[in-house]
Amino acid sequence: MISDPNVLVIVLAGGEGKRLQPLTNDRAKPAVPFAGTYRMIDFALSNFANAGYLKIVVLTQYKSHSLDRHITQTWRFSAMLDNYVTPVPAQMRRGPHWFQGSADAIYQNLNLIHDEKPDYVCVFGADHIYRMDPRQMVEEHMANGSGVTVAAIPVPQHEAREFGVIESDEAGNILAFHEKVESPPTMPGDDTRCLASMGNYVFDTETLIDIVTPRAEGEGSPYTDMGGDVIPALTATGDARVYDFSKNVIPGQDDRERGYWRDVGTIDAFYHANMDLIAPVPQFNLYNDRWPVFTTRKALPPAKVSRGRGGEPSFVDGSLLCQGSIVSGAHVENSIVGPGTYIDHDAHVTNSILFPGVHIGPGARLNNCIVDKNVAIPDFRRLGHDLDQDRSEFTVSDEGIVVLPKDYRFR
Fold first, then answer.
1. Domain CATH number, residue 338
2. pLDDT tens digits, residue range 271-306?
3. What is the CATH number of the domain that holds 269?
4. Does the residue 240 lie in any domain?
5. Residue 58 belongs to some domain of the structure
6. CA geometry: angle at 211 spanning 209 and 212, to 5°?
7. Considering only CA atoms, which of 349, 357, 289 is closest in space to residue 323?
8. H helix and E strand count, the chain
9. Residue 201, CA distances (Å) to 10, 87, 197, 386 in order
10. Can you say whether the dihedral through the CA atoms of 110, 114, 115, 117 is positive or negative?
């Protein structure tokens, strides 16, 4: 057994994120702002940074400019110690076509694995909100000797059709893998929940190279998708095991947060994951300084709460106010106010998420809204109060969340 293995991390960040539009109209899904200050990808990268896995490549493709810029400006490790986080755009190294899926993305970038010569490869998604110590998963993978280990967590059955669902035995061997089926099997003894794949995998290097490499010269990758193709193929050969994410232990984490993981693939899921952070006792704690979430820190002044120009008092409760934000004689409740956002006097913002650089005019009323970057809400404008009217101009989610796209200009 290798006591101190060489581990390469591959973060898959090339997905289009169609279900998160219009937030992904102008950016890759992992680059979408989260909790005001962060980008989604910061959570996955922070887990590896805290664990000391410091050789990380991020495979990008779809509208990746802001994601590439965020990684290169924010995520800098010591090159002297041979550590790095680097974005790798689709390069068509295997022919004139883009990535056909997550497994094909690995195949088209096998040169990264050959160059690094790792003992193990962590292949993780870039757009989930959670804390995890990947070292514990790698150690279990090493001890079990399987070709791949898949992190998993129970989810309600009605949500499970959006995930790969695992059937396993008591020893942790994966017996069957069902990728996004309409009627997924439930867990033994619990007909309300299914065991869902988190999209996080630890591979023996040779297993990963072999499974994504074509069997004959000139062929493309035998598989395109990790969940849809690779994991079922390794399951069929008895070479796949499951890792119970709920037993992962994080310093400074209490029992309430244990096993917290959110897939923010839809507007409603994104909204609820943000709202989780502003509960009186949040299930996900941003203030755990023993396992911090890292991101860029711009030179912005502290948040300011003051009376308005006419002496109007401010009211702020149950909210996150980011650097550079100003609440001037306004009412802010149960909301996230992004960096550099200004809320003018007599405006009411409730149950809403404001991205960086938003301006809320005097007397405006916002409820259940997500406002993307650099949007100016006109004076006295009402949003989230008449959904039929809002639908004529904006995206409104299934649960009634009104979404204003980046740089939107009111008529």
1. 2.160.10.10
2. 999 999 999 999 999 999 999 999 988 899 999 999
3. 3.90.550.10
4. yes
5. yes
6. 70
7. 357
8. 10, 29
9. 10, 19, 9, 44
10. positive
